[in-house]
């Protein structure tokens, strides 16, 4: 695969990975545009991607709160407003000249960004799979206080360690624990805090009637981090959505999950 930095605005460029299968006939298949979760690191998706990239073209977008993003000017909270996140996706689709000929696949914050952008008509696609989308971002009280306080940047590393402790108490699945620990330790702390300050106040619109492409919403009963009620509410508000239960959140990062993905694509 190749790695590109795509300019999405005057002062911001995002890292995008592009893979094409070795088999030339498979290169003709519609690509998958993949938008992972908040601060999500590529390693966590390796088991799924190492299999999937051999089967069809994949475009993996690292959103602007991740440490790979390049900012030319000093970052502010408004750099992490939802309309910037959605505009980034629209710019990358345009830059790669994808038209609407692709399928979306996303997780957590990535899903929230795509639902918001599809509702506001910024982009479209052939279909979309959302893993554990967030209606709103619920940070525990201790995290909200730490995010809001004007701590100097050197204390942020300590905050991240506290966050890891908080997540590990809540998450039951070992694979999910390892993934979040790795994710939290690899962050650009200032970006994570600035984006958290905005995301704390954000909520998906009540009306999702314009998200009209076929959608699958993946949910796992054992996933304590993404509230099942909120996920069900999102599924009910998207006209063409169906819920797909998987054994665990970790399962959705493994190569076995391709079966559910391919079944969904075959059904639309």
State the low-pLDDT regions, or none: none
What is the number of helical segments per DSSP (H or I, 4+ residues)? 9
**Mean pLDDT over the full residue set:** 91
Largest sheet: 9 strands, mixed
What is the structural class?
A: alpha/beta
* Gross morphology: globular
Percent helix among the residues? 25-40%
Percent in strands: 15-25%
Instruction: Report how far the terminal alpha carbons are from each other.
Output: 28 Å
Radius of gyration: 18 Å
The counted number of beta strands is 9
Element-level helix/strand string: EEEHEEHEHEHHHHEHEH
Task: Tell me what you see in this structure.
- The chain is about 35% helix and about 20% strand.
- With about 270 residues, the chain is an alpha/beta fold.
- Strands 1, 2, 3, 4, 5, 6, 7, 8 and 9 form a 9-stranded mixed β-sheet that branches.
- The chain is globular and about 55 Å long.
- The model has no long low-confidence stretch (mean pLDDT about 90).
Give keywords:
nine-stranded mixed sheet, 268 residues, alpha/beta, single chain
Short description:
This protein is of the alpha/beta class and 268 residues long. It has helices at 46-52, 82-95, 109-119, 141-148, 156-170, 174-185, 189-199, 228-237, 258-267; strands at residues 2-9, 12-19, 32-35, 58-61, 70-71, 103-107, 127-131, 215-220, 241-246.
């Amino acid at each position: 695969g190749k790695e590109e930095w795509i300019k999405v605005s005057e002062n911001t460029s995002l890292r995008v990975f592009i893979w094409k299968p070795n088999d030339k006939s498979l290169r003709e298949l519609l690509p998958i545009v993949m938008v992972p979760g908040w601060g999500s690191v590529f390693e966590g998706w390796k088991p799924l991607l190492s299999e999937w990239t051999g089967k069809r073209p994949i475009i993996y977008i690292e959103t602007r709160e991740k440490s790979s993003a390049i900012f030319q000017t000093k970052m502010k909270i408004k750099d992490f407003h939802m309309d910037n996140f959605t505009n980034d996706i629209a710019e990358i689709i345009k830059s790669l000249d994808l038209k609407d000929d692709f399928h979306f696949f996303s997780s957590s914050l990535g899903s929230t960004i795509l639902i918001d952008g599809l509702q506001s008509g910024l982009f479209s696609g052939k279909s979309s799979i959302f893993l554990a989308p967030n209606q709103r971002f619920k940070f525990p009280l201790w995290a909200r206080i730490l995010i809001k306080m004007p701590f100097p940047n050197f204390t942020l590393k300590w905050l991240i360690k506290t966050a890891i402790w908080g997540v590990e108490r809540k998450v039951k699945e070992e694979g999910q624990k390892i993934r979040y620990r790795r994710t939290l330790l690899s962050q650009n702390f200032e970006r994570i805090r600035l984006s958290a300050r905005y995301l704390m106040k954000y909520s998906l619109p009540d009306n999702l009637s314009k998200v009209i492409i076929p959608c699958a919403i993946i949910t796992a009963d054992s996933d304590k981090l993404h509230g099942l009620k909120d996920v069900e509410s999102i599924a009910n508000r998207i006209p063409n959505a169906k819920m797909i239960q998987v054994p665990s959140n970790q399962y959705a990062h493994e190569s076995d999950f391709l079966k559910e993905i391919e079944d969904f694509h075959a059904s639309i």
